[in-house]
Amino acid sequence: MKIVSSVAELRDQLRGQLRTAFVPTMGNLHEGHLSLMRLARKHGDPVVASIFINRLQFGPNEDFDTYPRTFSADVEKLEKEGVYVLFAPTEKDLYPEPQEFRVKPPEQLGDILEGEFRPGFFNGVTTVVLKLFSCVQPKVAVFGKKDYQQLMIIRNMARQFALPTDIVAAETYRADDGLALSSRNGYLSKDERTEAPTLYQQLNEVAQAVRDGHINLSQLEMQAQEKLSARGWMPDYIAIRKQSDLQKPTAEDLEQQAPLVVLAAAKLGSTRLIDNLEI
Ligand code: PAF
Q: Rounded to an integer, what distance in angstroms lies between the CA atom of residue 160 and that of residue 12?
């Protein structure tokens, strides 16, 4: 695997490649990321990964400084997956001058759910993803469904800017007890790790209630939040939304059985976890 940090070296390595499959990451790689690499391999060749902890998508009180940095372990894992090039730019490589041009997702998609609780987060994500796409020029890029809203925003961005990159969605990779793998799981204490799968259990309960025909969705959301709070969680949201646009389903949508998804974000101790489940 070639490890490159500058955009010029990356372009040299990828010259003439027309079927590049790209997986952008912020490192601290776990099985979930590796499953994205395997999916990428099915959709293109060569596979290119990036590791870049993107300051633009962290709020002032978020974990940019403490975000886990495990570069040599990450390199070993990517090598085993047969990744061809790892693009690991420094901040100076990717933002040699202040990034004044930014991408801003539409409010109805970027300022709800995660965007409500992490203002500016999706501006930072879309800005870096557009820039990474411009560096790698991939035919295909793979994103996990765990970050459901991120995936949808990137899909819409790719469509609206007519980017020549197909966005491929990867299923969420879960531990045996149901907890969605995430780099932030490493922040959990032993007791918190035991409690953490409750989030996914609550999503399942909500999904089941919807399938059973409950139509008072706000009541279901509230009950699930109360159950989490009673166990010591601090929920930001549990929200039942339409898969198509993440808006609240109307009575008509429910009648027509529009595909739904339940999304959640909650803090356990000082760790903020997110998860979702398609209904
Ligand atoms: O999902 C992530 O790890 C990040 O948001 C991404 C897509 C690599 C952009 O920094």
A: 29
**CA–CA distance, 218 with 62 (Å, rounded to integer):** 29
Residues catalogued as catalytic: 33
**Which residues are registered as beta bridge partners of 226?**
none
Mean pLDDT of 68-96: 98
Q: What are phi and psi of 38, to 5 degrees?
A: -65, -40
23 lines ligand 1 (CB under 6 A): no
The phi, psi pair for 239, rounded to 5°, reads -140, 130
Q: What is the mean pLDDT of residues 81-101?
A: 97
3-state secondary structure of 179: coil
Residue 25 Cβ inside 6 Å of ligand 1? The answer reads yes
State the Cα–Cα distance between residues 272 and 129, nearest whole angstrom. Answer: 23
Q: Is 5 exposed, middle or buried (0-12, 13-18, 19+ CB in 10 A)?
A: middle
β partners of residue 167: 141
Instruction: Work out the average pLDDT over 10-21.
Output: 98
Establish whether residue 24 lines the binding site of ligand 1, counting it when its CB lies within 6 angstroms of any ligand atom: yes
Residue type (1 letter), 189: S
Contact 28, 70 (CB under 8 A): yes
Determine the Cα–Cα distance for residues 216 and 206; give it in Å rounded to an integer. Answer: 11
pLDDT, averaged across the chain: 97
Per-residue model confidence as pLDDT tens digits over 27-75 = 999 999 999 999 999 999 999 999 999 999 999 999 999 999 999 999 9
Residue 133 scores a pLDDT above 90: yes
